[in-house]
Design a protein that fits this description.
Layout lengths: L1 H26 L6 H6 L6 H10 L6 H13 L13 H36 L4 H15 L2 H15 L22 H4 L3 H7 L2 H37 L2 H8 L4 H12 L1 H17 L1 H7 L5 H10 L3 H29 L6
Helix pairs in contact: 1-16, 5-6, 5-10, 5-13, 5-16, 6-10, 7-10, 10-13, 13-16, 14-15, 15-16
Length: about 350
């Protein structure tokens, strides 16, 4: 197992190098001059403009800028934000828990409903229940996130007033960051002693709508994949043998069929988790969720090269690592692959 994991890590190196190169080159194709955006009207002076450009290292040829960027990566330094002057790594990880909290909640929501829906559709195949469930999942998959999110905000937040429009916590509460996960930080002893559980429930109310919007597409994908995988397994001979032996349907479906149908489902879950983290940009922008997606959008608007490059590299590393861990999860689900 250790050898397999080490080999998987080695295979990540060319991919991460490609991510570094693409992030470096593509960000420079975005129209706009970061120096002019930073200086504003003061940038009209050629001397000030040249001085600022030199201080940021943007006066060097592209290949030299790339080597400086690679050197910083190998030394553990992703640079400093052009706009804030803070370390890119610190800015990323200060916002990362917010994105993880949102992504995991959306994934749990998708799994909690998606797998049972897929199993039920497979068991009730070619019946009205199957058609209704799969048609609904197809409709959920077709929903554009920006339209779906705005529609739910108008209905639940504006019309019914059930959920907040934006943010992670009501402005009437202040919670000292401890882990960065609001659901955990609001349960600190000091917070409960002063405010009770009100901040915790406020964090939940702020999380419900964006997690629902973000989890809609993964829910539809997981449901359809579960149904397809279950249908293949239910036609296997060992399932027919289990039925012939008189085992009850619950054991046949959940003990035998679902366990053997998990491999393609795990693949989808791994891809969905990586996709949720990278695809949080739209959801976080719509709901003003202070995560890495919103941060990268702001960095692109400000032409903040170090923040964009560092954010893309760290997200890419995370997605590649998740995919490698999914490969290892196959070994746990299917012992035959260990041979």
């Amino acid at each position: 197992m250790i050898k397999r994991f080490s080999f998987q890590l080695i295979k990540m190196i060319p991919t991460l190098f490609g991510i570094c190169l693409l992030a470096f080159l593509l960000v420079r194709l975005v129209p706009g001059d970061p120096v002019m955006l930073l200086l504003g009207e003061r940038g009209n002076t050629p001397e000030v403009y040249a001085m600022m450009k030199k201080s940021l290292g943007l006066d060097l040829p592209l290949y030299q800028q790339f080597f400086v960027y690679l050197k910083g990566i190998f030394s553990g330094d992703l640079g400093k934000s052009i706009i804030t002057g803070q370390s890119v790594t610190e800015e990323f990880f200060s916002r990362f828990p917010a994105t993880v909290e949102l992504s995991l909640t959306a994934l749990i929501f998708a799994l909690t409903l998606g797998i049972p829906i897929g199993v039920l559709a497979a068991v009730k195949r070619n019946t009205p229940t199957d058609y209704i469930l799969m048609s609904t999942s197809l409709a959920g998959y077709s929903m554009p996130i920006f339209w779906w999110g705005l529609l739910l905000i108008l209905f639940f937040s504006v019309h019914l007033g059930l959920t907040p429009v934006a943010g992670r916590l009501s402005v009437v509460y202040y919670v000292e960051p401890w882990t960065g996960f609001m659901l955990i930080d609001t349960l600190q002893r000091e917070v409960i002693a002063e405010e009770g559980l009100a901040p915790f429930f406020s964090a939940i109310r702020h999380l419900i709508l964006p997690a629902f919007v973000m989890g809609t597409i993964p829910l539809a994908v997981i449901a359809r994949m579960t149904r397809s995988s279950m249908l293949e397994v239910l036609d296997e001979d060992y399932i027919k043998t289990a039925k012939a032996k008189g085992q009850n349907n619950f054991n046949i479906i959940f003990k035998h069929a679902l366990k053997n149908a998990l491999i393609p489902i795990i693949t989808v879950i791994g891809l969905m988790l990586g996709g949720l983290i990278t695809g949080a940009i739209l959801t976080e922008t719509i709901f003003s969720w202070p995560g890495i997606g919103k941060w990268i959008v702001h960095s692109v608007n400000q032409r903040d090269y170090p923040s964009i490059q560092g954010g893309v590299l760290l997200i890419g590393t995370l997605v590649v690592l998740i995919n490698r861990l999914v490969d290892l999860a196959y070994l746990w689900v299917n012992p035959r692959l260990r041979e």
